[in-house]
Design goal:
heterohexamer, A: alpha+beta, 4-stranded antiparallel beta sheet, two-stranded antiparallel ribbon, 3 helices, B: mainly alpha, Ammonium transporter fold, two-stranded antiparallel sheet, 63% helix, 3% strand, disordered N terminus, binds adenosine-5'-diphosphate
């Protein structure tokens, strides 16, 4: 089992969700995040004081999947999120030791989906 | 310039008064009033001015509430600027375009009484209300200054109506240019047709406080803007409409209550004196239409959408108010309730219908101000058909036909004017922000700042 | 129906005036007033009407601010609907139940002057204020329309008070049914006892602007609702009270300031004319009680809670205002400060005490409107004991005993009436939302929408 | 105490009126007015009082909006408490310090008419407006009570100005002590110099509605507070200024619109009667200056900051309002636009400059109230130089020199007074919260609660 | 050492915290999340346009524990969060390589608690 | 590759970012979190009802780095975040299996920086 974390542009959330659905990945969790990467920030000016904003709004996805779903999931995220511009985001993949469904107490592969 | 006062809005008397022959006060006005009555009238008109002023805050909060958090600074900035632009252009030329006095240039269609108000030499003692009774300027209802300020507050309203409809995608600069032109030229020019004593006034068109002269005039330009701008990104995907939710229902509610409050001055002040009977009757019809608008929209929304949608209920309140504005002085109490109910119900259906037509109006301005503005104007011809307004030479009889002519005349000028101005701007400087800016929000794009610094919100739309 | 005007609220004169024998203006009123005075009076009453109207926005924002973000749409919707229901039922029957004129049915306890206001044949020229001086309807203080609108704005207030107390758990539909019945029947029926010239007016009960007639009447129903609904989920866990924090202190503060503003009209307008002395005195006592309420609550909160709790301070302001409402015209300046201080302090203690009793009132409506409404009414009997109000046949002497009788009479009818209506609704359609809906929030449950779309907040309560 | 009324603010008549010799109404006033005129005047003054009252909500929301979410409860609590403190100390002594009547103690510099207002024996029938025409108290413009309440609402304003400047770091207790002393002693004492008929009134200093007497008086104390408190943590890092963004632009906008609304009463009420000509002229100059302030600031901000900064635009509106306040009655329409434009532009530059000087003023109070208060007062000497105000013995001629003397006199007393009071508090109880509390927010530190319970926001500043 | 991530219904946060306390797990971090799982979303209607909301409000817990605490922690979360309904949530367990206490610089097992 | 998660006091975010920049760690993601640790909460009182707030505002950092950057990153976080007081926070380090740059599809070590 793997845990996939992805940072994407906020406005790509809907296309990513659609792409995931097409690959039959229905379960995911989303959080708000602020990201600092290769993407240049932008310039704000508040009451005459300038500031370079370099923490940009991002959406963070967290998806727990069985091993065979890893590549389809990565592909789907790329498909939905890629615009070709800096700031498109990043995907991280980690090992997932255990997964428990709270409702039933099921564990492992069965609990994930 | 003294003659001007005589061609101000004809004081509409409630039908009731006419029926009962209660014209003591009306006669008094023709001959000028006592210093005391003048002071009361003027005080009332000043209070009405404040109420109309606070409508601008109402518009600002309604529009902010119904749009996304990332565009809030932009909306507030636009609405603030418009009040300033409205007042200042009204000083420069608007007032004298709208109330040209004897200065008609083209028939009774266009007139102008010269640039700038209030030069010491232009305003004489009588107009300013200095001197002894009887006071005659404006029938003893107000001073020249009050007149200017009250009308000036109205002027900015027309442009503000546009603001909401084109929100979340229009460039700030071009919008301000549009507003300046529209409020300096179009609004006062067409306003003169009725309130300036122009050709529609002579034909007996009745628009008490501006269902057409203010609301439709703004509404037509809003429609033009929506068409030329196109919908917001993500509003219509593969031909399907998707909701783009407003970010603050409390702001919306604050705005609607303030607008209702302001309407007491908008309609109540349009009596142009503190005449107890006329003003209080107008306030009653106005309030009942607002209340009925709420109920009409709530019931309709509950039926159509299964659950009562607060944005619809509050739009319904405004719809009722716009609907009663043309005839608040001449329809009966029961008609005012009926007008409110119909406008409230229509508001819900119209918002849904315009959305189906892929006309993207984030705040429902075209529904509330244009659709209900037209309806309200026509309803005068239905619910007050045959009522005689005014007395003596100025008297006229309300008819559906004339109301329709009025509605069509404004349509024929305002909609093309809106298309023309927005069109020219589109061809030259462009009117729409870049896709990237629209996604990121106009607050950052146009102003380099945020409305809710530190707060976390999803901005995935 | 002309006779009705004579049985309107007896114009209370400030004690001072009586002492000093300054009755010139009072006499003038009995005989009707000049056209100018009529216009001033009516203008003042219209302004008061606007101020009372804006209280509804104040209630809406106070209640929203003191509850959770997930129930905000629901609260705003309730408060908007209530204004509409209040006005429309007042047209239909409320006004004529409250001011039955000669139409008493049961003693001077229940009367009715027929359905609907404002038929052309019903309102004659004198009532509408058309004609020549002297104007006599309402003592020359206002027209029939102003009268209706001012009283109509009051009517909705009683139901709004209930709204806050039962917030975050009551079903929308049943609440609207409750409000309609309460505002259409109960409020005007018991209101006629004093302001309609009924039995309590004849006994010399003094309730200037409605500590009892409006605030307690609403408060009793609020208490009934709280009891029948039970506390919000998670409020009392294992017998221990837990805080459920309001989501927006700015909304609360906006609301309280608007309510104070509105009270200038609520109390100031209850003079029922623009009488400079009486109105300005009432405004002064009202403001000082509000200010003292703030200080009283702040000091008490600082002592009892260790730190000044803003919600308590602002409740204290309202407590002071409710407390002064019954006697704003008859107590001295110093008494008004004292009344404010006491009510402010009591507000803090009462909120804590009611919470200890596991009566879950999210906004403190029972404290502010019921407890302080009762206190304020009794304080009239303490601080203005023996003062003679009015002159001639209508004069009466204030006494603690009569005040107590008044308080008890309203308790005896309003609390059971509240229990009955809410009880019947509970037995039939049910009054409480499902547990799941309560957790998810009434905005989604009752309206299918959110108040702050996009914003992130913890909704773990 | 009757004599007091004669030494009230000298009624300033618009220059126009003087030129045109329209003094009918002015003469009438000297000799007292009819009951009707008295009622109109008093009604107008009461309405003005309400408008000034609502400015306090405006201040509260402006200050909240321009500061961080974690300090919102504290700001709202301060602003609520100040209104209460202002009114109650004004009852106790402020009113009688500011308008000492014949009770001058030190030259015409300090006077006192005794503790407490409104004892039954102190206010006689004439002052309260009871009796028959002609009414003479305050020239027939208002009753004693209206007078007190209108002036009392002004009093609290001075302290409120300070509140914004010292926000986000001052301890609640000491701030309240400061406010109490400043509003009870300093504000009324120096106010008596002009409005109480003191030495500056005799020299012909002109400050119509308080650019200096209210705004600068508050501004000087704000400056003193800022200096003694030091900047907020993180505002200046290694000598570089960093932005600390306000958390809610809607609250800011609501506040500014309410303040503009309030200014109609602040300036309009300062005519001290409903004189149609004078009041409506003042309202016009006031509105135009506000509108021009918006444009002046917007253009300047657009040039200097590249994009229009909403906080600057809205500050510009207030700057225009403060700037016109001293001369709203005597400058011409065109001058009022010019004053607004200049003040709006100066506001932007001044905010930036004060920030460069590391004077940390979160809301721009020193810019708006102090800088533009001084400017506005001097502008009277520029744009109305040589204008004769008043008639008869009270008449005086406006001159730049006298305006400068006025400005300097207030500086010489208020700034040291502010330093002294804040300094003593700093030495004794301390005025600044702990570093930890400042980071965590004063809402939790001073009040143990949050303004937006449940909402998620970054509080990394 | 393990990192336990749990998604629960927002209103179960308090019971879960209590259950964790009973098992002597005192340290945890909480974030707001939106989740999409087996649980059906609900229907919103805004200005006449319908929308199926399928990102539901969830609370995300993150708890770093020593190996012997894993099972008690899982049990506690289940105890506090389970209602038996769909949407009760999920628990993920991952290996944690290192843990550092910023204040003291302590590392590993000692730093965790 | 490693994933570093750190919980710090909100007001230390800027110093931590600066310290990371000095170590040439430019990419990171930030979320809002509420934390419960050794740090005592504080006392709130709302309308007369007391409550002990023990979920305190924290900022959560997530930084994906190559192995050789782990220690410099930890050092930088400590440098920026340490005040010596309880509540300074905690750093967690985990194995990161894969990293994908959405824009280019690059994977692994190259994608991380
Ligand atoms: N090494 C990293 N650690 C943590 N978050 C990262 C890392 N790299 C990228 N991110 C997240 O991904 C977002 C997009 O990164 P960006 O640098 O714009 O993408 P790209 O890989 O195309 O340069 C960033 O804003 C940040 O939130
Ligand atoms: N595979 C997954 N990856 C990421 N988050 C998940 C996953 N499965 C469940 N979740 C989270 O847990 C929440 C509850 O999931 P749900 O499907 O309702 O539970 P159940 O396992 O009972 O079907 C979801 O809303 C989501 O936030
Ligand atoms: N074992 C843990 N699991 C998850 N988060 C933790 C853990 N320990 C600490 N934290 C996070 O770090 C923050 C700081 O913890 P704290 O206990 O104050 O640090 P210290 O290690 O100095 O005691 C906590 O508020 C919490 O968010």
């Amino acid at each position: 089992m793997k845990l996939i974390i992805a940072y994407i542009q906020p406005e790509r959330l809907t296309p990513v969700k659609q792409a995931l659905y097409e690959k039959e990945v229905y379960k995911l969790s989303v959080t708000n995040a602020m990201g600092c990467g290769q993407q240049r920030g932008y310039h704000e000016s508040y009451r005459g004081v300038d500031v370079e904003v370099n923490l940009l709004k991002k959406v963070r996805l967290e998806i727990a999947v069985n091993a065979d779903y890893v590549e389809p999931t990565i592909d789907a995220i790329i498909k939905g999120a890629r615009t070709g511009n800096i700031g498109d985001g990043k995907i991280l993949v980690m090992d997932l030791g255990e997964c428990v469904r709270i409702r039933t107490g099921e564990r492992g592969h069965d609990a994930i989906g | 310039m003294i003659g001007k006062s005589l061609q101000k809005r004809v004081l509409p008397l409630v039908a009731l008064m006419v029926l009962l022959g209660g014209t003591a006060m009306a006669q008094e006005e023709a001959a000028g009033v006592s210093a005391e009555m003048f002071a009361v009238n003027n005080t009332w008109m000043m209070v009405s001015t404040f109420l109309v002023f606070i409508m601008h805050l109402g518009f600002a909060t309604v529009e902010s509430g119904l749009t996304r958090a990332k565009n809030t600074v932009n909306i507030l900035c636009k609405n603030t600027a418009i009040v300033a632009i409205g007042l200042l252009t009204y000083v420069l030329m608007g007032f004298n375009l709208m109330y040209p006095g004897d200065g008609w240039i083209i028939g009774k269609v266009l007139g102008f009484a010269g640039f700038s108000i209030g030069l010491a030499e232009g305003v004489d003692a009588t107009m300013a209300g200095v001197g002894a009774a009887p006071f005659t300027y404006g029938g003893g209802g107000y001073t020249y200054w009050t007149d200017f300020l009250f009308q000036g507050m109205f002027a900015a309203t027309a442009a503000t109506i546009v603001s909401g409809a084109v929100a979340e995608r229009i460039k700030l600069g071009p919008f301000l240019i549009f507003s300046t032109i529209y409020v300096a030229l179009v609004y006062p020019a067409v306003g003169s047709w009725k309130w300036g004593g122009g050709w529609l006034a002579e034909r007996g068109f009745h628009d008490f406080a501006g269902s057409t002269l203010v609301h439709s005039v703004g509404g037509w330009a809003a429609l033009a803007g929506i068409i030329l701008l196109g919908p917001r990104l993500g509003k219509y995907v593969n031909g399907k409409s998707r909701p783009i939710m407003g970010h603050s229902m409390p702001l919306l509610a604050i705005g609607v209550f303030l607008l209702w409050l302001g309407w007491f001055g908008f309609n109540g002040g349009s009596v142009l004196s503190a005449d107890p009977s006329a003003v209080s009757f107008v306030l009653t019809t106005t309030s009942l239409a607002a209340a009925a608008g709420i109920i009409g929209a709530m019931v309709t929304s509950w039926i159509v959408q299964k659950k009562p949608d607060l944005t619809m209920v509050l739009n319904g309140c405004l719809a009722g108010l716009v609907g009663i504005t043309a005839g608040a002085d001449v329809v009966s109490i029961h008609s005012s309730v009926l007008i409110g109910l119909i406008c409230g119900a229509v508001a819900v259906l119209s918002v849904i219908m315009l959305d189906r037509l892929h006309l993207d109006d984030p705040v429902g301005a075209t529904t509330v101000h244009l659709v209900c503005g037209i309806l309200g104007t026509l309803f005068v011809g239905v619910f007050a058909n045959g009522v005689v307004v005014g007395s003596g030479a100025d008297a006229y009889t309300i008819s559906f036909g004339t109301q329709l002519i009025g509605v069509l005349s404004y349509a024929a000028v305002c909609f093309p004017a809106g298309l023309l101005i927005f069109g020219l701007l589109k061809l030259t400087v462009g009117i729409r922000v870049s896709e990237e800016e629209e996604l990121k929000g106009l607050d950052i794009g146009e102003h380099g700042m945020e409305a809710y610094s530190g707060f976390q919100f999803f901005s995935n739309m």
